[in-house]
Design a protein that fits this description.
about 200 residues, alpha+beta, Jelly Rolls, 5 helices, TPA1/OFD1_N, uS12_prolyl_hydroxylase, Pro_4_hyd_alph, Proline hydroxylase
Length: about 200
């Protein structure tokens, strides 16, 4: 993708998208809108944060901004990107490049990580969705690796194998069986970490 096209996507995410917050709290995966979060009392927010940290300490936690994108997306730039991912040309190219057979759909969500957010180790296998290949299209200009937000991969025993910096206008691809995480975004991160993410699959 050209730098200009990626810049338009970044602008759409940073200026036009309202993100909900996805979190793991009390053993449940929840999604809270900005309005719902503001409506909570301070003590409720503290309790949610405490539970979030307790879960994360046990290797089961996440907190990040997200918004699912579908073909009915009103933002033209995001809608065009979603349509391109689901075009026969892209799906055929991904099928051929990965040797995964006839991939026939791509899902997409806009994601935003701000300081204090993270995604602990996990796999992306969801049998009922037919996920095969995960992708992350990075849209954070001038990202500094010391800010966190690295896409990190692990062996089954927890040993780190690779870490990928979310450099602007780069595409990361990996199979859904890969154990991975997004590292904690530090308090001194100057910008949010934006990306368009999802899965190519077979239904």
């Amino acid at each position: 993708m050209s730098f200009e096209e990626a810049a338009h996507l970044y602008q759409a995410l940073s200026e036009n998208v309202t993100f909900d917050t996805a979190m793991a709290v009390d053993g449940r995966n929840i999604v809270v809108s900005a309005e719902e979060w503001k409506a909570l009392k301070d003590e409720q927010r503290k309790q949610i944060y405490f539970n979030l940290m307790e879960n994360a300490a046990k290797g089961n936690g996440f907190s990040y901004g997200r918004r699912y994108i579908t073909e009915s997306e009103a933002n033209t730039v995001l809608n065009n990107f979603f349509s391109a991912l689901n075009s026969e040309r892209v799906l055929s190219a991904m099928s051929e490049m990965t040797g995964m057979g006839d991939l026939n759909y791509a899902s997409m969500q806009a994601t935003r990580f701000v300081p204090g957010q993270f995604l602990t180790r996990h796999k992306d296998v969801v049998e009922q969705e037919g996920r095969k290949l995960a992708y992350v299209f990075n849209l954070s200009p001038e990202w500094h690796p010391d800010w966190g937000g690295l896409l990190q991969f692990f062996n089954e025993d927890g040993a780190t194998t690779e870490s990928w910096t979310p450099n602007f206008n780069t595409l990361s691809l990996f199979t859904v069986e890969n154990i991975h995480s997004v590292t904690y975004l530090t308090p001194f991160a100057k910008k949010p970490r934006y990306a368009l993410t999802g899965w190519f699959g077979k239904r």
